[in-house]
């Protein structure tokens, strides 16, 4: 006889301008009410969710059971749309009722204060990207861990299938000499979408040797050189229309990778967090996360 496993209980906290993750993450985990979800203020979320089969494709290992945002009306709508049972009045009301927390705000200025009570309580927390934009703040947040495997923070694009470089591709490219990547919007919030998958692709290239910035209007372009001699250019192109793209140039060939599937990337990242809650083992090394933050910080400081 098969024994049903109790799903991991998760709580969602916060919402920030222009960021629909409380809707998307909750829907991917719980499923959603398609009628209520039409009122979601992020049409792109409604569009990609409609292309998938629910409840079959929801994350059955977990359930979002509680939600808090700064606005009770918004919390109630997310709760109805994403089948969340409890709306709470204070974020700390989650403590004692959930196994992990989804801090679904990308305004990194508030990550320390919002994650602190949960980390101090020993709960695992998924902190939306970017974790921080300075290594000082990154270290300060990680210092709150009571045990390994409490903090999970990344861009979901590190799990994007489109950015997986196969063994066959690596053989065709040869030794990577240069990487070029672009993303829309601002450097501080959105560069992480290409910096993190790029560092994952490149692997260890030694220490950072040099950072050069070229900024114009709302465009922010940063070139990094490592001790190995490998270079990478990361461009956050502001209001310019552009795909999220990474191009690799090697001593044998060239490949281009373009991100397209938000649903799958979010789902894989959420599964990784649920796995961490179960195992108490961090799937991303904090040293790696710090390297991502370091590039974002240096890109901000050297204009």
Q: Report on the biggest sheet.
A: 6 strands, parallel
Q: Kindly report how far apart the N and C termini lie.
A: 64 Å
User: Within the largest sheet, what's the order of strands?
Assistant: 3-2-1-4-5-6
Overall mean pLDDT stands at 95
- CATH homolog superfamily of the largest domain: NAD(P)-binding Rossmann-like Domain
CATH fold field value of the largest domain: Rossmann fold
**CATH architecture identity of the largest domain:** 3-Layer(aba) Sandwich
Measured on Cα atoms, how large is the radius of gyration?
A: 19 Å
**Could you say which overall geometry the principal axes of the C-alpha atoms support?**
globular
Strand content is 15-25%
Number of strands: 12
**Tally of helical runs:** 11
Indicate the low-confidence ranges by residue numbers. Answer: none
Output the CATH class name of the largest domain: Alpha Beta
Tally of individual domains: 2
Structural class, please?
Answer: alpha/beta
Compressed to H and E, one letter per element, the order equals EHHHEHEEHEHEHEHHEEEEEHH
């Amino acid at each position: 006889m098969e024994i049903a496993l109790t799903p991991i209980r998760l709580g969602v906290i916060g919402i920030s301008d222009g960021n629909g993750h409380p809707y998307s993450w909750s829907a991917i985990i719980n499923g959603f009410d398609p009628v209520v979800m039409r009122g979601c203020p992020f049409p792109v979320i409604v569009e990609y969710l409609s292309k998938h089969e629910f409840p079959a494709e929801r994350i059955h290992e977990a359930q979002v059971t509680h939600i808090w945002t700064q606005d009770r009306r918004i919390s109630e709508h997310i709760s109805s749309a994403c089948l969340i049972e409890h709306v709470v009045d204070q974020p700390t009301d989650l403590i004692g009722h959930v196994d992990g927390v989804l801090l679904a705000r990308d305004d990194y200025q508030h990550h320390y204060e919002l994650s602190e009570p949960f980390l101090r309580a020993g709960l695992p927390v998924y902190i939306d990207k970017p974790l921080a934009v300075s290594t000082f703040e990154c270290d300060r947040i990680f210092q709150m861990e009571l045990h390994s495997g409490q903090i999970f923070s990344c861009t979901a694009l590190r799990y994007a299938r489109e950015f997986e470089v196969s063994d066959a591709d690596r053989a065709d490219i040869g030794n990577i000499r240069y990487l070029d990547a672009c993303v829309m919007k601002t450097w501080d919030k959105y560069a992480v979408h290409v910096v993190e998958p790029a560092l994952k692709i490149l692997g260890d290239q030694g220490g950072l040797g040099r950072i050069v910035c070229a900024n114009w209007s709302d465009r922010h372009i940063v070139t990094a050189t490592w001790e190995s001699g490998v270079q990478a250019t990361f461009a956050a192109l502001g209001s310019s229309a552009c795909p999220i793209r990474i191009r690799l140039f090697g001593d044998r060939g060239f490949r281009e990778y373009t991100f397209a599937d938000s649903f799958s990337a979010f789902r894989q990242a959420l599964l990784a967090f649920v796995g961490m809650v179960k195992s108490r083992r961090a799937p991303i090394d904090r040293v790696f996360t710090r390297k991502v933050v370091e590039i974002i910080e240096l890109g901000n400081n050297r204009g």
